[in-house]
Amino acid sequence: MFCCIKPIIPCSPPPSPSTRCKSNSQAKPIASSSLPDFNNGSQTHLPPTRNTYSSLIQSCINSQSFDAGRSIHGQMLAEGFVPDTYLMTKILMLYARSGDKDDIVVARSLFDEMTERNSTAWNTMILAYSRETDHKEVLRLFYQMLRDGAPPDKFTFPSMIKACIATSKQEAISQLQGLIIKVGLNRNVFVGGSLVDGYAGFGLMDDAVAAFHEVDGDNVIAWNSVLGGYVKLSLWEDAWSFFHQMLSAGSVPDHFTFATIIKACGSMRSLAKGKQVHSNLIVSGRESDAFVANSLIDMYASCDEEHSCRKAFDLMKEPNQVSWNSIISCYAHLGHYEEALHLFSMMTSSGHRFDRFNLSSSLLACAALNDIEIGRQIHGLLIRRSLDSDLILGTAVVDMYAKCGCTERALHAFDRLEEKSDVSWNALISGFVQEEDAEGALHVYHEMRLSISPDQFTLASLLSLAASRGRADMGKQVHGYIFRTGIEPNVVLETEMVHMYARCGRLGEAERIFHSMRQRNNYSWNFLIEGHEQNGDYSYALCLFYEMQLNGIKPDSFSMASALTACACLSNLNRGKQIHGFLIKNTMDNHRVLCGMLVDFYARCKAMNYAYGVYERVRVKDAYVNNVMISALLDCRRIDEARELFDQMGERTLVSWNMMIMGYSKYGFEDESFRLFFRMREEGVDYEPLTIVPLFNLCAGSSSVDLGEMLHTIVIKSGFSCSSLILDSAVIDMYSKCGLLEDARRYFDSMDDRNIVAWNSMMTGYGKHGETSKVFELYRQLKKFNVKPSGVTFLSLLSACSHSGMVEEGLDCFIAMLEEHEVEIHAEHYTCMVDLLGRAGFLEEAKQVIDEMPIEPEVSTWGALLGACRMHKEVRLGRQVAEKLFQLDSENSGHYILMANIYSSVAMWKEADQVRELMKSRGVKKEPGVSWIRIDNETHTFHAGDRNHPLADEIYTRLRDLTAKIERMGYVPNDEFVLRSVEDPMDYLIQHSERLAVGLGIIKLPERSIIRVFKNLRICGDCHVAIKLISEVTGRTIVVRDNNRFHHFKDGACSCGDYW
């Protein structure tokens, strides 16, 4: 019993869940002087006392040598020493404070075995559970403590108040305050401060402040509790006021005070207040404190002050992990992405670790910079550390790939996530939305619905995509989901529904949703105005524009743009001037885009003086503004002024070059167009398909096949992919319009991927050449390859039927458009039907089509009917149609000529003269007929009766000889095509421009070569008969392209079958 105690060495503690040894790396060694040496032979062997064990246990607690403490406890148990309440409390403290969960179980077991418990024992256990955040057990122990009659003290109440906050027991705080007052601890610094914390935690700031004023002395902790409560409740101004009370009271803020008030300044985005606190901070000497400096960085970041943010960071002696994370996050969220990545690199070089915060910020920077390479490196790092399945980091990876346009990689990263949140789904869907991949976005959306309900952000994104792609079907799916699930859409979602329906032309649905909205913002008004403007309802768009202002919504640049476009389309100069005045009044008259639109508006209203005025007032005339002005000048046919401005431009963009080339091409300036294109190449300007297409069109229009072939060679050498819609069409169109139909077909057949535009171009080419069977053959192939026909496809079919007299086939095509392919029918299709029926002699049926059209007939529709009347010499109906056309399109000479021809065809010379007099009185000039032929890369142009050509005498002589020969074959001049009474119709008709061009071709071209003649108007009927016979007499193949089609004359016949 009284034998000496063995030396204290690490040994196994008593059997219990807590007996596993803890790492000594976290334990502080016990100083040898703190433990008595029981083996010292010079000392008398005495049994250990309570005080001895108590001292040893306390030494272990103070030095955190918990393994040694367990060994001492084990020694006590081995020796059979029975501790009293005081010593047992010390042992309890040893296990309770180790931080090991198993030790807390042992502590609780020892606590429960105690027959007598003092306040320290109760507090020890309560504090242990509080540290473990087992707040329910804290409350149970406290109430048990009260039942056992143990008095709570200043150490008990702080843990209890913390437990009440954690378990949301607000009413318990008031009860505790009564008990605190009862035991006289309400003025205690720690208890009173905790009570302030408790009330502040529940947002009861009046009670918190009242409790604060009860506390004795200048207690910075209590000040911080109230201040923290105000900040937690976002009562920034109250926090600011209370901080100044603190300073006025002479209390010295600590690092927590400064960090809290700095956070408030950041949340208020008050740079002035933040700098004021920063000044106080410098005076206090706490500027380099890491905790406070981190708050400064966050505050300056919230105020968009990256310079001050960086300065606060650079002043830190040793930035910690939080500091690096804050500065990287600051630069990333302020848009300084490259610097954020540079700081990330500096952080890793300085030995700090990666974590989810700095990795997320870096991935955000990669996404914004579209830096897929660094993004992939970070992703690789996450994979190596098995962090790619982490929700936050994995979602950041998905977002990065999605924003870089790598939707497949984004999908793969998404699939790796162990848990998927709505943010993850939205990041993935946003990627498909950004790429305008409607099918991909819809697929992810349907997958999302299987595991999580799409939120309003998801639905708004999908509606936005449906709007941009014109996918009403997709938008209706999303709208249907909103309706079925009973989602109460917010203003953003409602606005996107208006946007989608308006963009898709479903204006009735857009209006219905718009008028049901409880709150309408600028965007909802703008989308509805834009929808009506883009769908041609310009007057109503302007009405909405003014109604928006009556509802207190101030127009912005978007609504102004729509309104100006509407005014331009209506040629409403006065309304446009009003909008211009509004822009000046609201200092928006220097908005570069709106200025450009104003220039365009005035140009379209033929008010170029105003357009110049707007242009001159623009302070910075950049490429955009100059390009708009050039476009306006070209639209008004002021080509020289446009070229002068182009030459003066300091900075020419590709758009500048394209516009000038397009302008020259539009007005037929072939030489200038090609000169500018070659100059562009010499200056090293990278051109694009859009640059070349107008040149191909120019070659097609002028039948310059040599230039067209040269241009095609340039395209091939430039490495352009001829799979672009416009380029494919232009090349095929050029060859077919130059009469080289076989070359056009070879190009078409060589294409790897034939889109609908290429099919349409080839079909149109065959139609123009009268190859109707080839048109239908291509149509059958198109369907075989599952290419969806478009409206243009059916225009080609209907036109081919019209020019071949295939009435039944044309009617079948028209029905197939509606029933089989659901192609939207436009005015052009009705025009083709009128032409089809009219040419075949069904004039009343053609008129009935016009009368029953669901849309307003266009001028061309009436023109087709008038042409049919001319073909069938129908005077009565022709007169009615002509009167209609004289009202609708009074400046078009073609209508007058057709009507005069109808009268001439039935020898009504007086009436024909009257039409010409009407035309003259209205100042309408007949477009002169012009024909041309290219021989040895030179264009020879002829007008009717032209004698300016050097070979004019030889041409007329050859034509008279040929006319004499074809007369012997039965040719008789058709005086229907003599527009006035003349003595010799033969001599009059021989002077027609197309016949003169054919004459030159017979003289100059080798006998076996094809004679190709081009005319800007319809070929004369008499010339058509004559050239057929000339082809037989001469044995030559003659091809004439008029403004409608190609006529291939060979061996006395024409490819049109005399039906054109």
From TrEMBL:
Q: Which GO terms describe its molecular function?
A: RNA binding; zinc ion binding
Show the Pfam families listed in the entry.
Answer: DYW_deaminase (PF14432), E_motif (PF20431), Eplus_motif (PF20430), PPR (PF01535), PPR_2 (PF13041)
Asked if the keyword NADP belongs to this entry, the reply reads no
Report what the protein is called.
Answer: Pentatricopeptide repeat-containing protein
Q: Which regions are flagged for Polar residues bias? A: 19-46
Q: Which organism is it from?
A: Platanthera zijinensis
Annotated PPR repeats reside at: 49-83, 118-152, 219-253, 320-354, 421-451, 490-520, 521-555, 622-652, 653-687, 755-789
Domain DYW as annotated: residue spans: 970-1060
Organism placement in taxonomy: Eukaryota, Viridiplantae, Streptophyta, Embryophyta, Tracheophyta
Q: Where is this region: Disordered?
A: 14-46
Keywords associated with the record: Repeat
Name the InterPro entries for this protein: DYW_dom, E2_motif, E_motif, PPR_At4g14850-like_plant, PPR_rpt, TPR-like_helical_dom_sf
Give the UniProt record's GO annotations in the biological process aspect.
RNA modification
PROSITE patterns in alphabetical order: PPR
